[in-house]
C-alpha cells in the first residue's frame, strides 16, 4: 500500500488537472467532466485502503451511497434555470466540509489525539475561516437565487461591522494558535467566521451573483486544498488548489467583465451598482413590433446575431431559438450567437443552455470576437438580456455600469429586443438601447415569441 496509495493519488491529481484543462473549451468540456469524475472516483476508492483510515467503513459507505444517490437524483431533475442555485449550494457544501474537517482536527488536537506543528495549525485555522465563510456565504447566495431572500440588506456602517467581525475572527484564531484550541474558543471562532460570510453576502445585489458564485467557488477550492495539507492527502491538496486557482482567475475575469476591480468587489463595491443610481433618464419612447414583422425582417436579412440573456433561461426558450436559427440558416441567413461573460446568473450559463439545445460551438462567439461584426449585421435579436447590451455603459458617465464592456447591439442596422414588459429589469438600471431609433421591442414570454417568429418565417415559404 505504501506505493499504491500515493500512486493512485498522483494519478487522480493528474486527471483532475487534465479534466480542468479540457473544461476550458466547450468542445472538450464533456470529456473533461468525465475525466475529473474518474479522478474523484479513484481518489475516493483508494482512501478505503489508506493506512490512516481505520474502521468506520460502514459509515463511509452509507455516506457515499446516500450522498451520491441524492446528487444523481437532483442533477437529473434540476431545471437549467436552477443551475446557479445548485452550484451555489455545492460550493457551500464544499466549504462546509472543509470547515467541518478543520473542526474535527482542532478538537483532536485539544484532546491530544493528534499533534500539529505551528505551520499545520496555521493552515488548519485559515482553512476553517475560508471554509466557514464560503459555507454561510454560499447559502445566502443560494437563498437569493432561489428567491427566498429578496431583500438586499444594507445599512450605514455595514463595512465597518464586517471588518470588525472579520478582525474578531482573526483575533480568536490567533488566540487558538498561541494557546491551543478549546471547545469554547472553537465555538466562538467558527460562529464568527460563519457570521462574517453572512454579513459579506447579504448586501450583494442579484446582478453581481455571477462574481459571487465564482468567488465562493475559489474560496471553497482553497479551503479544501488547505485541508489536504492538514490531512497529508496530496490528491485533496492538489485538487483543491487547482480549483481555487481556477476560481480566482475566473473571478478576476468576471470582475473585469463588469468593470470592477477585484478589490472593489471584495471590500466595497458588492452590489452597489443597482442602488447607487440609475444614470440619466432615457429620452424618446420604446417602439414595439409584432412577431410577423420581426420574422420578415429576420427572414430577409443577410446576417443575424442572437444575444441570449437570463430571460431566455427563465422562459426555457433555447430549443425554440435553435429551431428558429435552423429555419433562418436554411434560407441562407448567416446566424451567430453572442455571449457576454456575465450573461445569466453564473459563469457560462448561456453556453450551457445553448449546448443543451444543440447549438454548434462554432456559431457561438465571445464579446471580443463578435463586437466588430455588429455594424454589418442586419438584425441583432436580444432575448432577455439587459445590462450587457445597455449603451449607457459607453455613453452615460453617471451610469453605475459606465465603463463595463458590453455587446454593441445598438450598432447593428436593426435591433429587436424580446422582453416581458417595459420595466428596467433585474438591475434596476434604465436601458438606453430600448429607446434607440433602430430598436424595436417585441413583448412577451421568450418561448412564445420564438414560436411566433418560427411560424412567421415558415409562413413566408
Indicate the topology.
Elements: H1 4-22, H2 29-47, H3 57-77, H4 83-111, H5 118-146, H6 158-179, H7 183-201, H8 209-231, H9 234-257, H10 262-267, H11 291-299, E1 303-308, H12 310-315, H13 318-330, E2 334-339, H14 349-357, E3 364-366, H15 367-370, E4 379-383, H16 392-395, E5 414-419, E6 439-443, H17 446-459
Parallel strand pairs: 1-2, 1-4, 2-3, 4-5, 5-6
Features:
461 residues, 17 helices, single chain, alpha/beta
Poorly predicted regions = 269-275
β-sheet strand percentage: 5-15%
Proportion of helical residues: 55-70%
Output mean pLDDT.
86
- Order of the strands making up the biggest sheet: 3-2-1-4-5-6
* Morphology: globular
Radius of gyration: 25 Å
Total count of strands: 6
**Quaternary structure annotation:** single chain
SSE run: HHHHHHHHHHHEHHEHEHEHEEH
Amino- and carboxy-terminal Cα gap: 70 Å
SS field, number of helical segments: 17
Q: Tell me the structural class.
A: alpha/beta
Main β-sheet, in a few words? 6 strands, parallel
Protein model, in words:
This protein is α/β, with parallel strands linked by helices and 461 residues long. It is 59% helix and 7% strand. The chain has 17 helices and 6 strands. It has helices at residues 4-22, 29-47, 57-77, 83-111, 118-146, 158-179, 183-201, 209-231, 234-257, 262-267, 291-299, 310-315, 318-330, 349-357, 367-370, 392-395, 446-459; strands spanning 303-308, 334-339, 364-366, 379-383, 414-419, 439-443. A 6-stranded parallel sheet has the order 3-2-1-4-5-6. β4 (379-383), α16 and β5 (414-419) form a beta-alpha-beta unit. The protein is globular.
Amino acid at each position: 500500500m505504501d506505493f499504491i496509495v500515493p500512486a493512485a493519488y498522483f494519478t487522480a491529481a493528474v486527471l483532475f488537472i487534465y479534466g480542468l484543462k479540457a473544461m476550458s473549451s466547450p468542445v472538450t468540456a464533456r470529456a473533461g467532466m468525465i475525466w475529473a469524475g474518474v479522478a474523484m472516483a479513484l481518489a475516493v476508492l483508494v482512501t478505503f485502503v489508506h493506512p490512516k483510515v481505520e474502521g468506520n467503513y460502514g459509515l463511509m459507505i452509507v455516506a457515499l451511497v446516500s450522498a451520491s444517490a441524492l446528487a444523481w437524483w437532483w442533477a437529473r431533475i434540476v431545471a437549467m434555470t436552477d443551475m446557479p442555485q445548485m452550484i451555489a449550494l455545492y460550493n457551500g457544501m464544499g466549504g462546509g466540509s472543509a470547515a467541518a474537517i478543520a473542526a474535527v482536527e482542532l478538537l483532536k488536537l485539544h484532546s491530544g489525539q493528534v499533534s500539529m506543528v505551528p505551520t499545520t495549525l496555521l493552515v488548519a485555522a485559515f482553512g476553517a475561516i475560508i471554509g466557514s465563510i464560503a459555507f454561510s456565504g454560499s447559502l445566502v447566495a443560494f437563498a437569493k437565487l432561489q428567491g427566498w431572500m429578496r431583500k438586499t440588506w444594507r445599512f450605514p456602517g455595514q463595512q465597518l461591522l464586517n471588518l470588525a467581525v472579520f478582525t474578531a475572527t482573526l483575533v480568536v484564531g490567533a488566540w487558538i494558535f498561541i494557546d491551543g484550541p478549546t471547545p469554547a474558543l472553537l465555538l466562538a471562532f467558527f460562529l464568527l467566521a460563519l457570521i462574517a460570510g453572512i454579513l459579506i453576502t447579504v448586501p450583494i445585489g442579484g446582478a453581481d451573483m455571477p462574481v459571487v458564485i465564482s468567488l465562493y467557488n475559489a474560496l471553497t477550492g482553497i479551503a479544501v486544498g488547505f485541508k489536504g495539507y492538514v490531512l497529508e492527502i496530496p490528491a485533496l491538496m492538489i485538487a483543491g488548489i487547482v480549483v481555487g486557482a481556477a476560481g480566482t482567475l475566473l473571478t478576476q475575469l468576471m470582475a473585469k467583465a463588469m468593470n470592477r476591480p477585484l478589490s472593489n468587489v471584495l471590500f466595497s463595491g458588492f452590489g452597489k451598482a443597482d442602488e447607487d443610481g440609475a444614470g440619466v433618464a432615457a429620452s424618446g419612447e420604446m417602439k414595439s413590433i409584432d412577431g410577423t414583422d420581426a420574422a420578415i425582417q429576420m427572414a430577409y436579412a443577410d446576417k443575424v446575431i442572437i444575444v441570449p440573456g437570463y430571460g431566455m433561461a427563465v422562459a426555457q426558450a433555447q430549443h425554440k431559438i435553435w429551431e428558429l436559427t435552423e429555419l433562418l440558416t436554411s434560407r441562407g441567413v448567416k446566424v451567430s450567437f453572442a455571449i457576454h461573460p456575465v450573461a445569466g446568473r453564473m459563469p457560462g450559463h448561456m453556453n450551457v443552455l445553448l449546448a443543451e439545445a444543440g447549438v454548434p460551438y462554432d456559431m457561438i462567439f465571445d464579446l471580443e470576437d463578435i463586437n466588430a461584426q455588429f455594424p454589418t449585421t442586419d438584425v441583432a435579436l436580444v432575448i432577455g438580456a439587459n445590462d450587457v447590451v445597455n449603451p449607457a455603459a459607453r455613453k452615460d458617465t453617471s451610469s453605475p455600469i459606465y465603463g463595463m464592456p458590453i455587446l454593441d447591439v445598438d450598432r447593428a442596422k436593426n435591433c429587436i429586443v424580446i422582453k416581458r414588459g417595459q420595466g428596467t429589469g433585474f438591475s434596476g438600471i434604465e436601458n438606453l438601447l430600448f429607446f434607440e431609433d433602430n430598436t424595436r421591442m417585441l413583448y412577451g414570454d421568450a418561448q412564445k415569441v420564438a414560436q411566433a417568429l418560427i411560424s412567421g418565417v415558415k409562413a413566408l415559404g
